[in-house]
Each structure stands twice: as C-alpha cells, then as structure tokens.
Write a structure and sequence with these properties.
The structure holds two protein chains of two kinds. Chain A contains seven helices and twelve strands. By secondary structure, chain A is α+β, with helices and mostly antiparallel strands. The longest helix of chain A is centred in the first third of the chain and has 19 residues, at 14-32. Chain B contains 15 helices and no strands. In chain B, helix 9 packs parallel to helix 12 (327-345). The chains are: A alpha+beta, B mainly alpha.
Chain lengths: 265, 421
C-alpha cells in the first residue's frame, strides 16, 4: 500500500525519501539476500556531464555493453542492454546499413567501423516532452533520469526516442543474486520492477560520486571520454575544443545530444 | 427535489432491468459476447500477472495491436458527428431521430478506446498518476495528456447529450434547448479534436519519419468519416430489423453520400502519401517500403496493406456507382471500407513507424494469441455496451418505456411486448 501511494520523486521530503529508501532496501534484501547501499544522489553543483566517443579507436569488442549490464543491474533474462554497438561499412554513416548482430572470431574487422549507441542525454529530449506523467526529466547536470516508481509504462517515450535508448521491462527482470551490484542510486541502477522503462543514466551512482561510468572504465581502446563540460580543463572540454569534426547523431532532429562522436584527425 | 431524484433512480433501475430482458436472439447475442469478453478478461489477467511479455511487442516495436485498435476506434467515436452535423447544421429531418444511435456508438467506442489504452499500460495500478490534480499531469507538453483530456471530455459530452435526450423522452417532455444544443455544438468541434489529437500523438515524433508527416491528421479524419458512418449504416439496419423502430432508407442513403465523399478524399490522401514517399525515394521512405513492398526480406505487412488498398478501392468504385444505392451493395461496401480502414490505419499505421527501428534494425511484430484474445475481449465488451445502450434507448424512443407507464403491471408488459418484436 505504501508502494501504491508513494509520492512523486520531486514532491518527497527528505523524511519521505528516507522511508522509501528503507522500504526499497528491505525489499532488495528480501529478494536478493543482501542489503544494498542505496542512496538518493543529487546533481553536483557546477557540473554538466558530456560524453565523447572516439570512432577511430572503437574496436567493437562490446566490453562496454557487458560492463554496463553488470554495473546497472540490468535484467539478464529477458536481456536488457543500454548500449548497442553498430557495425558500419566504411564510409557510411547510415544506420540502416548497420549490422547489430555481428559476431566474428576477432574484432575489429576489415572494412568496417563500430559505433556504440546509448542514451544521448539530449539537451532537448523528446522522451521527457512526451511523458504524460513527468516520470522522466532532465536533471541539472544534464542527465535525463527516470523515477521507476512513477512510470506508468505507456512506452510513449520509447516511440519518441530517436536512438532506441529506452528499454522496457516486459516482465519481472531476472538478475542472478550473486551478480547484483549493491552500490545503488535511487534514480540509477536500483533493481527495476515489471512494466516500467529504463535507460542509460551515465551511471549516476558513480558519476554523482566523483567516479567514471562503467563503460568508460572498461573500454580497452580508450575510445570513451567523459567529464564536466563546464570545467575548461576537463578532458572532454579539451577534446571538444581541439578536434575538428564531431558528430551528434541525428542532429537534424534538434535533440542536441550531449554525446559526441569524434575522430582522430 | 427528492421526487426528482427518486424518479431518476427509478428510470435508471428500469433501464438496467430491461437490459436483462429480451427475446432468444438477444440472449444468444449477449451470451456470445459475454463468453468472448470472459476469454479476453482471462487473457488480460495472464498479462497482468506476467507482464507485457505475453504480447508480441518488444523494445523495438513497443506499440502493437492495442494501440492500433485504439487509433481506429477514436475515429469511430469521432464519426458520430457525421450524423450530428446534417441534423443540427443542415436541418436534415431524416437523420434527426437517429443522432442518438450515433452518439451511443461514440460512447461505446470511447469506452473501448480507454480500455485499449489501459491494457497497453505496463503499470495500470499507477493510472492515478495521470489524474490532473492528484498525479503529475504533463499538460500541455505531452500529447498523451491532451488525449486523456479530450477522450474523457468527449465521453462526458456524449453521455450527457444522450442521457438528457433520453430522459426527456422518457418523461415525454420537450428537451430544453439550453441543456443540450450548446453541448451538441461543442461535441462537433470536440469530435474533430479527439482524432486530431490522436494523430498529433504520432505526428509530433521527429524520430519516426513515417509518422512525422502533416498528412496523418487529415488522413485520420477522412478514414474515420468513412469507417464510422459505414459502421452506423450497418448498425441502423440491425436496429431496424430487430426492433420496430422506423429508420428510412433515405436516412441510410444520406449516410452513403457521406461515406462516398470521405472515401474519395481518403484514397486521394493515400495517393499523396504514396507519391511523396516513393517518388522521392529518400532514406525516410524505408518504413513505407517495408509496409508496401517489404524491406530486406521482411514483408509481414505487405499482404495486409494490399488487401486494405484493394478493399478501399473496390469500396470507392462501388460508392461512386449508383449500384450502391441498393442496400445489399451498400452493405458490402460498408464492410469493405471498415475492414480496409481498420487494417490501413491500425496495424498499417502503427507498426511501420517502428520498422525499421530508429537504429536501422529490422524487427517484425506479430500479435500473440493472448494479445489477440484481449483485443477480441474489448471488442466484445464494446459491442455488449452498445447493445445494452440500444436495448434501453429504443423502447424509450418508441414511448414504450416511459414515466407514464412506471410501476404496476405495465413494467413487465413492456418487456413481454418487446420480446415478440
């Protein structure tokens, strides 16, 4: 009943939030046998996160995909993955020519480049605009988050997203007990329920605590860069001010992604 | 005051009672619908427990046959105005007494729409988040919040108009113009708005080029004003056959001219869309190619859409010919139009929007058995509602169920008399 009547995230007092976190922690403990460290992490002052991905370096190994699944407690059965790596033929930037299910002995393959796609953290996010109940919004640090306890599961955001970034829990997510990541954030990687949407949130349980997202840490090619665009000394600021060409995927739609693809040229 | 409330409650009670009385055909029909409805309810319970995984939908094709039916039925509801406009604006006398049947159909259609949206929700238990004032209503940014408002508003408007007119007739009073004429005119504009808003739901999505086209709204209206009146033509003939209610052929032929014009516009708009998509041959035409020709070896929708187009074209030719002045041919035309438009603006509209996906993947959608049963259940429930509405409305309009014969022996006598009709 408490769960049914739970208030909207932005209307909760610190006391409400404390109770909710206690209740959710208990539920997780009951279900997975371990007590999580669940926090409600707020955006940091003076921080706006952006992502830069070096397409010259990405080798298409999909290590980011799996690190993300592990970090963010994504359902293993049925499978939900926030990152989709597209294998693209040389010279083309047309996603319709991409192959999603490439499976060679070894990567990279000759004649192709690889483009990982995840939530682009748009400055002008269509998913936020269409949500009928404000269950998803853009926070001050630029991350679009979801209140999993407020989403009604209408999937309008999935129809609106031009990047296929949003995923739906068609049934109760299946996560093996021993694989659960106990370091959790309320708007981040806490286990989701059946019937709600979810997506990449730049690992807020890490990044709002001063750490890199899991996909950045795991990338063996150093293709993934992440940081605060408001800090002129940050790596991403340097990249964006020195590299000659960037691509913001589908920028003709006016979504203004905070996710930049660049090349070593 | 207390007598007024008492009279009203007695009216409702008598209406409810008569819904359970009829001849064997009535019982057979209602029994048949109830059984299908129960199958649907059972299927929905399975979905409620296991989640939407029991449907054919996926992350890639995240809306399916529920939203397709919803879209079609919003059109049917909107089409009620096609009976109202001739009567209240052009003073058409033939249709005057039939308006109420159109509006009752609108009420039933909206009920079905609301059910189709509800069964599509992943968390129906959280529907209260959508209630303005209690939840968090993203108005005016989200077109879905507009849809919630206009659909419920339209439901209330039609319930009020039908309820008031029927209650006045029950009392054998002339309805006071101020109590319904303004609502009738609001409802006319409102009907257009429900379908426009439903079109904007799709049109507003820049990431889906197949939907992000300004022709969707006009096409929705044209197809609605074809399929809706077609459905009403068929319904009126059924009413005429099973009750003694007088419905003239002339009224049916007036509706025929509406269907005729709407179908021509509908086919014309379709041609416009086909030309734009296929002549330009841009990357944005991938969904249209998938729908009409198949793409990269996937062509699940191709036979469907060509069936729809063939039905629409045959119906258009029949409608233009004098042949369709005969009811036999007119009925065939109506059936073809309804099926053609149901395919075209249901699955033919919703699914290609998702195929290929925004990242260029080809994932095909096929409704599951469970999903289909839920749909059949909702259709059965809608027809059940419409039949009950008619069961109440017809005797009232005929004066057989009236305040004058309230209580005593006359009540059951009415029911008995009716079962012989």
């Amino acid at each position: 009943m408490d769960e049914f009547l739970q208030k909207y995230y932005k209307e909760m007092t610190p006391e409400d939030m404390r109770k909710v976190i206690e209740r959710i922690s208990k539920q997780v403990e009951q279900q997975y046998g371990q007590r999580p460290h669940l926090r409600d992490l707020k955006p940091m002052h003076g921080v706006e996160f952006v992502y830069a991905l070096n397409l010259t370096r990405c080798i298409g190994c999909r290590k980011c995909v799996h690190a993300c699944v592990q970090e963010n407690n994504q359902s293993r059965s049925p499978e939900i993955q926030y990152i989709r790596v597209l294998r693209m033929p040389h010279g083309s930037f047309d996603v319709e020519k991409s192959e999603h299910n490439y499976n060679p002995e070894k990567v990279p393959e000759k004649g192709f480049f690889y483009m990982p796609v995840q939530c682009q953290q748009c400055r002008n996010p269509p998913c936020v605009k269409v949500c009928p109940v404000h269950a998803t919004w853009q926070d001050a640090d630029g991350i679009t988050v979801i209140d999993y306890d407020w989403c009604i599961g209408c999937r309008y955001c999935m129809a609106a997203c031009p990047y296929g970034a949003r995923h739906f829990n068609f049934t109760k997510p299946g996560i093996p007990k021993e694989r659960l990541n106990l370091e959790m954030a309320y708007l981040g990687n806490r286990p989701r329920k059946k019937g709600v949407t979810e997506k990449c949130h730049f690992c807020i349980q890490r990044t709002r605590d001063g750490r890199y997202p899991a996909c950045v840490e795991v990338c063996p090619a150093g293709a993934r860069k992440f940081g605060n665009i408001l800090d002129p000394e940050s790596e991403v600021s340097k990249i964006l001010s020195t590299k000659r060409v960037f691509i913001q995927l589908k920028d003709e739609l006016g979504t203004e992604p905070r996710f930049y693809y660049y090349f070593d040229v | 005051m207390t007598t007024a409330i008492r009279n009203y409650l007695v009216f409702l009670w008598r209406c409810a009672k008569i819904a359970f009385v009829g001849d064997w055909r009535y019982y057979a029909w209602m029994g048949f619908l109830s059984i299908i409805f129960l199958f649907g309810l059972n299927a929905y319970c399975k979905q409620f427990v296991n989640g939407l995984i029991v449907t054919g939908m996926s992350d890639e094709v995240s809306w399916g046959v529920y939203i397709s039916n919803f879209t079609f039925l919003v059109g049917v509801a909107a089409a009620a105005v096609m009976l109202v406009i001739p009567v209240y604006i052009y003073r058409n006398e033939e249709l005057h007494d039939l308006v109420i049947f159109g509006e009752l159909l609108a009420v039933a259609a909206i009920i079905m729409c609301l059910l189709f949206v509800t069964v599509d929700l992943g968390r129906p238990d959280r529907f209260w988040h959508l209630i303005p004032g209690i939840g968090q209503f993203n108005f005016p940014a989200s077109m879905l919040s507009w849809d919630v408002l206009v659909l419920n508003g339209y439901l209330l408007l039609n319930v009020h108009i039908c309820g008031y007119l029927l209650y006045s007739r029950y009392h054998n009073r002339k309805p006071s113009k101020w109590f319904y004429i303004p609502f009738v005119f609001v409802a006319i504009a409102w009907a257009v708005s429900i379908h426009t808003v439903t079109a904007f739901l799709y049109v507003g999505l820049g990431g889906r080029p197949f939907w992000n086209s300004s022709i969707v709204g006009p096409r929705f209206l044209a197809s609605a004003f074809t399929a809706g009146p077609s459905l009403i033509i068929l319904a009126l003939q059924v009413i005429r056959k099973v009750t003694l209610y007088r419905i003239s052929d002339k009224a049916l032929l007036t509706l025929r001219s509406i269907v005729q014009v709407s179908m021509i516009i509908n086919v014309f708009l379709l041609l416009n869309e086909l030309f734009k998509e296929f002549y330009t041959h841009s990357a944005h035409a991938a969904s249209a190619r998938y729908l009409f020709l198949g793409l990269h070896g996937h062509h699940a929708l191709v036979p469907w859409i060509w069936t729809a187009i063939a039905f629409n074209l045959v119906a258009m030719v029949l409608l233009v010919l004098p042949l369709s002045r005969s009811l036999k041919w007119l009925n065939l035309t109506c059936v073809l139009s309804i099926i053609g438009i149901w395919i075209e603006k249901g699955m033919g509209m919703v699914i290609p929007g998702f195929t290929p996906t925004t990242l260029g993947e080809m994932i095909e959608y096929q409704p599951s058995t469970n999903e289909t049963l839920v749909c059949l259940g909702i259709w059965a429930f809608g027809l059940l509602c419409y039949t009950i509405f008619l069961r109440m409305a017809v005797p009232i309009l005929q004066g057989r169920l009236a305040f004058a014969n309230e209580g005593g022996r006359q009540g059951p006598a009415v029911a008995l008399a009716d079962s012989h009709t």
